[in-house]
Predict the 3D structure of the following.
Amino acid sequence: MFRMPETVVKHTLEEQTALAAKTVRKVRAFLHGAYRFEARYSDYPNERDVIESGGVVLSGAQLNEGTKYYVVWDYQGESGRDCWKFRGGDGFAASVCDMEESMADDLNIGMPGDLLQMAASNWAQSMYDMAANYGTYGSVVKPEEPRPEHDPDHEDYQPNYADMVAAKWNPIFERAKADEHDIECMFFHTRQGCLAPAGSCQFKHTPLREHTFSDGGFGRISAEQAYQYFMDWDSD
Ligand SMILES: [Zn+2]
């Protein structure tokens, strides 16, 4: 989990507008296939010549869990290159739920999961994982076979994080893919807020109560129950 920023980021309106425009193009590069994954030299020592002449391009399905890759995107004038460790396989869905918790508590994000903030920050690593899965499975997470523990009445209940994350995030991807303005504003829920004059922001300003956690706040509720338990114990 990333450390929470302690200070409130302040942008000017012009900075907000420019950052949002740039970030939307980055996000849509991944939704419209204007990106590629490349192997690193160190992982393909016998293919140095091939890599130097243009890279070993890999599909999302060819990525190995826990291995670092380059990712390159280029869409409508917005291009970039990053290096990250693919971890989009088993266990990724649960980490998306952790990400939502961290984003909700982050003064400079303020909501449980934000596509643009994800693309514009260190959370981009999760977006690359989601993009690889989306290209492979048509879903941001690798689908998981249902298990008995996914039944809420089971004594060892464990949420089916893959189903829950897919239910929340696949529609977010689909909407953003179809319409570049059908995306939540990346500033509206921050402590500073969106500086666009009322009614003029190009992105959605959805009330916070309508932004749900993929797991229904399961992790958060568990933590609160533990806290309550100790409070009760203390007061006895
Ligand atoms: Zn806005």
Remarks:
- Confidence is low (pLDDT under 50) at residues 229-236.
- The longest helix spans residues 13-31.
- The pocket of zinc ion is lined by residues 185, 187-188, 194, 196, 201, 203, 205 (CB under 6 Å).
- DSSP finds seven helices and four strands in the chain.
